[in-house]
């Protein structure tokens, strides 16, 4: 693929890791950040010490605080801002976006106020049809991608040619494999909700409940993801793939997972504000729990894990009581409670 000019907004851990992939693929990559000191460190020391302190960044990777120049010269723009900031960042970028530029986002969450998916937010702010926006998701920790560990993800768009354009942009034969998927609703929903289940897994592990409980949370969490996703129009097949079960497993079991770490701290008796202060980075599962709690009621979907975590996070329910409530739920059938029916 011919070299392209790519803008990555913003310079957090995942944005920086994806920028490395793009630079390794021979593209001209600029990370945009509002922080002048961070841009200076990336440009002069080839480090991003706040987010990936052990990593040495490629010499070809640049950083800038000038969004007009960064976006205005880009053939592709990759949005990797936290979900809470996506609309603002998109609004800043919109006046400078070139016609025909590829738009990709790699953010896993919903907009808390509107409950909209990130592709919808971008479509509104960039004045582009949603089918022209691509989401990148899947089992992928920045700490491993930055070290070029083998990673496999999906890029989703209802337009297969546009998804394939993104696939070509990111595909790296050495360590970063990319599949396409037409189900943008399913990929975005799975990527967002798995952060809630990872909070629950960290909480369970922090309480010392072991592998059995974690496996149950992952499995029943996948059922919740599937129920909500199906109600929102997603394909059930998506949840059996990389964006579904793949991302869920890695986020619920890895030491790199912010959501798992936050859940573990909650289990140790720390309050939510203190957990977030100690983390020092966005924990998407917290805001997503609020959004999913509302979406479950909006779509009439049963999400018991999400409901109990909402009580722990925002209603001061003790974590051990939340686990007890889940274990004591009325008995039901596994297949039916997963939102599936044997007769179709």
Keywords, separated by commas or semicolons:
Rossmann fold, N-(1-d-carboxylethyl)-l-norvaline Dehydrogenase, domain 2, 344 residues, single chain, globular
Task: Please tell me about this protein's structure.
By secondary structure, the chain is α/β, with parallel strands linked by helices. Helices cover 51% and strands 11% of the residues. The chain folds into 2 domains: 5-182, NAD(P)-binding Rossmann-like Domain (Rossmann fold, 3-Layer(aba) Sandwich), CATH 3.40.50; 185-337, N-(1-d-carboxylethyl)-l-norvaline Dehydrogenase, domain 2 (Orthogonal Bundle), CATH 1.10.1040.10. The protein has helices at residues 13-24, 36-45, 67-72, 86-93, 118-126, 142-145, 160-170, 184-206, 210-231, 242-253, 258-267, 272-279, 284-299, 304-314, 319-327, 334-337; strands at 5-9, 28-32, 62-64, 76-79, 102-105, 133-137, 151-156, 176-181. Helix 14 (304-314) packs antiparallel against helix 15 (319-327). The chain is globular and about 55 Å long.
Give a brief outline of the structure.
This protein is an alpha/beta fold. The chain has helices spanning 13-24, 36-45, 67-72, 86-93, 118-126, 142-145, 160-170, 184-206, 210-231, 242-253, 258-267, 272-279, 284-299, 304-314, 319-327, 334-337; strands spanning 5-9, 28-32, 62-64, 76-79, 102-105, 133-137, 151-156, 176-181.
